[in-house]
Write a structure and sequence with these properties.
- This protein is α+β, with helices and mostly antiparallel strands.
- The chain has 4 domains: 3-203, Metallo-beta-lactamase, Chain A; 226-473, Metallo-beta-lactamase, Chain A (4-Layer Sandwich); 476-596, Jelly Rolls (Sandwich); 628-722, Jelly Rolls, CATH 2.60.120.10.
- 29% of the residues lie in helices and 30% in strands.
- The chain has a 7-stranded mixed sheet. Strands 19-20-21-22-23-24-25 form a 7-stranded mixed sheet.
- A hairpin with a 7-residue loop joins strand 20 (351-357) and strand 21 (365-373).
């Protein structure tokens, strides 16, 4: 072969290699996310919760930028979690050391909002915000000084701003060019990428379910309710690829208080057999992404009480508002708030909560939770994210941290708690297990640690998902109180308490494993009605050799009550335990007698008839069975026969279920939502039914109050109305 031929072949080979390098490759490291490699550029499209874990599990070695997609939320998860991706880029991928910036690509509004979230989570509030919140000046100064000491700095020790860490690129005329890569925004969550003569289309709307990228164990057996226990939903950090982030659930007298909200809360509650209806409150320590994924709490059937400092609560509201592009006051409608300040003791229905300060990069607290049982105090202390003591001491010496803050932490380390949950994440911002070697606590359990050093493996334990620490066992009285709590939402207030006592006295507590069949379609009712006390059940129906999911029920929902009231005789669907569940089994005869009042009987029948109709109305299709029940209670069904006049009043909301009509107002003819239509102009007037028409009618004031009392309805209705054209 001649030298010329060899040279020609080398040119062909090099050209082929360059073309190969320019090919565009796309992978899905997590649901709701796509990793695109084009030449030397790697971009992450969509940032669902814990997306970094998906990248690590798929051994993704690097990325250069993030594309913020149009959807802010899907399937109950936010899709713009940027915080831990930035940490990883700066520290693990060497971005900070090499003075490289992370590319952020999106529209102007979302880029600005993401940067403000990063400011809040990396650098914390500024002095002006503390002034608006009327924070104690000494506390504000400590938080500001610790944030400054923890912040990234350049070689000259100047503080780096968010703009020093990220480089933003705005879609201009729906295009952005980075080097030889061109991104075109072609539709909602849709993009076209061109590089080196190659192109590819991406649709980030393909994944309708957003799920964790790591496997996790699901409970098979129901866990008895406790007077005081702590369940671990997750105990790792945001950088651990195979374990969920840190989140705890404190069970007190059968109800649960979350301690922080880990990402994918609903999935982890489901895995533990805890219904969201069992959650009444949340103690919030700080707003970092691995502790403060609060969107699922906005979709609870009742308002969750947030217990924290006013500053941390305001930070959480602002973070959610920026992430969803909603107003802060609208976010606040979805929660109750109880303020607690460091050093104060809050009596929370008999559970004593004493908050304390920690030293972390942004405002953070921990707390001691205590209950007295038979004269003996039982105490659980959750320290919270915290620097090691040896790293706090220089901050005290420099005046950044007050001596009283360190003194309080040292006392915590020396207190004989029944259970001490400590931060063992090490590094600059987290604790050191060695400092608790001499702790007098009965049990010391670490979070933020993947594996304990050999020296500590027989001294401490790790907070792995699924662990449960019971300090005070529960008794049967817990179930009686819980039954009464749930039934009061079902029973007519005019019904005598004696009927309720007889119903409860004649009941039995039954336990079912995961996937156990509780009721079988087609079988006789056997004289029993069930109230779910813990966990979730699926209602399924066999139809034409198909198994169809009808509904999901959870703690507080009744099973089989309508079979008793309507004399159906046989069950029209099967009920299967979606998680381990505990149920209360009632006598059908006693329940039927209790509901014998004509008015109450008619009310229950109305609810039963409205359930399937309400589920068909678009704004209500994503709400739980518990919320559907509340809507049916507040609603009435109105039927109109052909040629009948229909009047849409200004003090009601009307949702069309079926039928067509004519009107002088064309908008009335085509609209499925009439009367009051917040935030749109009311649509009132008259129409004539062309066919049989059905409308769900709800008085406006009743509906407004129902939304305010029911976060999931408030959220889903607002979300639905925002998606409509501005004309309504």
């Amino acid at each position: 072969m001649s030298h010329k031929e060899k040279s020609f072949r080398w040119i062909i080979l090099l050209t082929s290699l360059r073309a190969l390098m320019q090919e565009i490759n796309v992978t899905a490291p997590a649901s709701g996310c796509r990793l695109l490699n084009a030449g030397s550029l790697a971009l992450v499209f969509g940032q669902p919760p814990e997306v970094l874990k998906g990248l690590l599990r798929n051994q993704v070695e690097s990325f250069d930028g993030l594309v913020l997609i149009d959807s802010r939320e899907r399937d109950g998860s936010l899709l713009n979690h940027v915080e831990f991706l930035l940490y990883h880029f700066l520290f693990q991928l060497g971005g900070h050391q090499a003075s490289r910036k992370l590319h952020l690509i999106g529209d102007n509004l979302q880029l600005d909002q993401v940067k403000r979230v990063l400011q809040l989570c990396l650098l914390g509030p500024d002095s002006e915000q503390f002034s608006v919140w009327q924070t104690d000046p000494a506390l504000a100064q400590e938080w500001l000084r610790v944030a400054e000491a923890s912040a990234l700095k350049d070689a000259s020790q100047h503080l780096l701003t968010i703009d020093d860490l990220v480089e933003t690129h705005v879609f201009e005329n729906d295009q952005v060019t980075l080097g030889d890569v061109t991104l075109s925004h072609t539709g909602w969550d849709q993009y076209r990428v061109e590089a080196g003569g190659h192109s590819i289309n991406l649709d980030l709307g393909e994944d309708q379910r957003i799920l964790p990228s790591y496997p996790f164990h699901r409970e098979n057996h129901p866990t008895p309710l406790a007077k005081l226990s702590l369940e671990v939903l997750g105990g790792a950090s945001g950088f651990s690829p195979d374990e969920p982030c840190t989140g705890l659930a404190l069970c007190y007298n059968g109800e649960y208080m979350l301690i922080d909200v880990l990402p994918f809360l609903d999935e982890h509650l489901l895995a533990r057999g805890i219904s969201k209806n069992q959650i009444s409150s949340c103690f919030l320590t700080h707003v970092h992404d691995d502790h403060c994924a609060m969107l699922p709490l906005m979709q609870s059937s009742r308002k969750i009480e947030i217990i924290s400092t006013p500053e941390i609560y305001q930070m959480a509201l602002e973070k959610l508002a920026l992430s969803l592009d909603w107003r802060t006051e609208v976010i606040a409608e979805h929660f109750e708030f109880t303020a607690i300040r460091p050093g104060e003791v809050l009596n929370h229905y008999g559970l004593m909560i004493e908050a304390h300060l920690t030293v972390h990069s942004i405002p953070t607290i921990g707390a001691t939770f205590s209950v007295t049982d038979a004269g003996v105090p039982r105490r659980v202390c959750v320290i919270g994210d915290n620097h090691s003591l040896k790293n706090i001491e220089p901050l005290v010496a420099s005046g950044a941290v007050r001596e009283e803050t360190l003194d309080r932490l040292q006392r915590i380390y020396a207190t004989p708690y029944d259970l001490l949950i400590a931060d063992g994440g090490a590094g600059i911002l987290h604790g050191d297990p060695e400092e608790l070697t001499d702790s007098p606590a009965d049990r010391v359990v670490f979070v933020h640690v993947d594996e304990l050093a050999t020296a500590f493996s027989a001294t401490f334990s790790l907070a792995n998902a699924g662990k449960r620490y019971t300090l005070i066992e529960g008794t049967q009285s817990l179930y009686g109180a819980l039954i009464h709590h749930y039934l009061k939402h079902w029973i007519d207030p005019n019904v005598s308490d004696r009927w309720l006592r007889n119903l409860v006295t004649d009941s039995r507590i039954k336990h079912y494993n995961l996937d156990d069949v509780i009721l079988v379609q087609g079988q006789p009712s056997r004289g029993n009605i069930y109230l779910i006390l813990t966990g979730y059940c699926k209602i399924v129906r066999h139809e034409n050799d198909q198994l169809n999911a009808v509904a999901t029920l959870q703690a507080g929902d009744l099973i089989g009550e309508m079979a008793a009231l309507t004399d159906l005789g046989a069950r029209n669907a099967s009920v299967v335990a979606q998680t381990p569940v505990i149920v209360c089994q009632f006598s059908e005869d006693v329940f039927t007698a209790l509901a014998a009042s004509p008015a109450f009987h008619a009310e229950l029948n109305k609810r039963w008839q409205l359930r399937p109709l309400v589920k068909r109305i678009p704004p209500f299709q994503a709400v739980s069975a518990t919320v559907i029940e509340r809507i049916t209670t507040a609603s009435n069904l109105i039927d109109y026969q052909p040629s009948e006049e229909i009047v849409f009043a200004a003090d009601h909301r009307y949702f069309r279920i079926q039928g067509s009509m004519t009107s002088d107002n064309p908008e009335i003819e085509k609209s499925d939502r009439l009367g009051v239509r917040t935030p749109f102009t009311p649509l009132t007037g008259t129409a004539i039914a062309s066919t049989h028409c059905q409308f769900l009618s709800i008085p406006d004031q009743v509906f407004e109050q129902l939304c305010l009392d029911t976060p999931q309805l408030n959220y889903q209705y607002r979300k639905f109305m925002q998606q409509l054209p501005s004309v309504g």
